[in-house]
Protein: Glutaminase
Organism: Penicillium angulare
Amino acid sequence: MFARAYGALALVASVLISPSNAVTYTPLKPPSYPLAVRSPYLSAWIPGNVVESLPSNNAQFWAGNTLVWSVIARVDDTTYNLFGVASPNDGTKSGTVTVATYTSTHSTFTVTAGSRSFTLDFFSPVSPKNYLRQSLPFSYLTVTVAAGDSSSVQIYSDISGGWTGQSSDSTWSYSTSGSTGVFQIEAVGQATYSQNSDGQALWGSAVYATRPSDSSTLSTQSGPRVSVREQFIDNGTLSGNHADWTSGAVVGFAHDLGTISDESAVTFAIGHVREESINFLGAAQTGYYRAKYADTVDAVTYFLDDYDDANSESTDFDNLISDTGSSSFGSNYSDILALSVRQVYGGTELTIPNESLDTSETRAFIKEISSDGNINTVDVIYATFPIFYILSPAYLKLLIGPVFEYMATDAYSENYAVHDLGANYPNATGHVSSGESMPIEESGNIIFLTYAYQLASGETDLYDTYSSQIKTYATYLENNGLYPASQLSLNDALGELANQTNLAVKAAVGLATYGKLADDTSYITTGRDWADKIWTDHLGTDEAGTRFLIQYDITPWFLVYNHYPDVLFGLDVFPDEAYNATSDFYPTVRQDAGIPLDGSLEWGQTNWQGFGAATVSGEARDIFINDIWAYISNGLNTAPFSDKYWTSSGSGYTAGEYNSFRARPTLGSHFALAALSGANTWSS
């Protein structure tokens, strides 16, 4: 009753705040729709609150800057703008958006143009166990004209040089492979592994490709945007001329479908390719797919060849995510999971050595998008790991394997786990001395991640390879974990504090987890003894045992997200009474839009709320899930799913508005509740 009533109130609030006119949003209108989200550098979105005027609004990079990407159609010689035409040519009309839908892999929009209806399907495959498919740095756009009266129909699409990260200087080329046409746009004069101020890659190539459908004739053109589009508007085809690059120009394709009454579709591929993609300790890494398709034209041609199989897999995958969410909590939860998936995998890249192209040396790299740009931040991997635990446990090895490799070098000499592999993605060149250090936090996290991989995959190779390192970090926890020295935790907004209960909880659960890895019950006993001190003896709680405190004997309370591995792994480090207490307590401190991260704050983080939901029951669990759902459906936000939002109103901000962070991959934490039902549930 509570969940249903609460969700209904949130939905009413959403409608009142952001009326949707004639557009039907399914399952809800999110802050932002993922359009092409496949890597930190191929990350295109459209804010939910502009979807009803989709024909005149541009796509955006995750940071919010404009990406020119348009779709225009002619129906019986009348031209309609369907998507991304912010500056329409004279004589054109805007289509009318009627339906907007998202699943875990597709964002689709139905637009009426004259007598015909068009569906724009933005499809970013998520194939967790098919490394070739997952690593291809491209996304699909399929434009389908529905069956209708007999009409002459042509479809046009273009992109600009802004996809290269700069608009001042680029070059482009056009080539073919069979019937496939491929434009490549390259930034000029920029250093490898460099980014612009919005986080776009300044090296590599933006790619746009298509091929004729069974019923279409393809034509191409590049040059000034207005003149290229005018050519299509006047003639329904393009000239075939490929002018030299100029600022603001576009590369365009036109499909002439002729006079048709049946349904017909054309598909485009958009991408961003970097041959040298990651600098790992001085050695260039490249995309996994290049072991088979080293040439970009070959790669994007294969990507288009793979559409039917990828699309078929996506149907099964979308159903799995929907069923997983619904069976774990209900439709609100499945809505959250579906919106989270592309953001997680789109922040992660699969690589192999660029020199050898040896797939036996596959690694994965994850970007701490928008918060500080670190690469393979251990606590970001920890925040993300539940989705990998369910869908692709090998990713945990691929992500922390490079971290272990670095910590085994002479460049790292600490007796606790490192915070990250580098300050600025894609440079995994080692932790900088001025960067954050979280000794207990990351030592516990690296142990959790190793055991999560082992438990979910049934493989012991990661622990077997790095057992001596892992023991060093367990020893650090044993020597320093019960009374933590002044240091940072994941709640780094608090700064460095001594005797953080949060860190002691992590150390206790971390030691017990190490006991499972090493098959040494003494560590499990120590972890439980510490939990007894923290909980039963009230070292880390108030005297009545109703709440956990930020520091020993110091208020306020905090959200005990580090209980999650104890619950997931079935360790029984903390007693049921501790979990019953938090279940009872959290509803009493809920603010207007949710439960904050701790009692001193007016903001919360959905990643740790996701962990919290998996450790409590009853009303508390309902609140966590329904508050996240209300946050993404309230109509107040436009940023790609931010995991940090205001839970209370104050000067300059409103409860339910996003606070900071955009498009971070940490949304894997939303799968924490679902992960309790089992690991490794996806079969490719």
In short: Residues 1-20 have pLDDT under 50 and may be disordered.
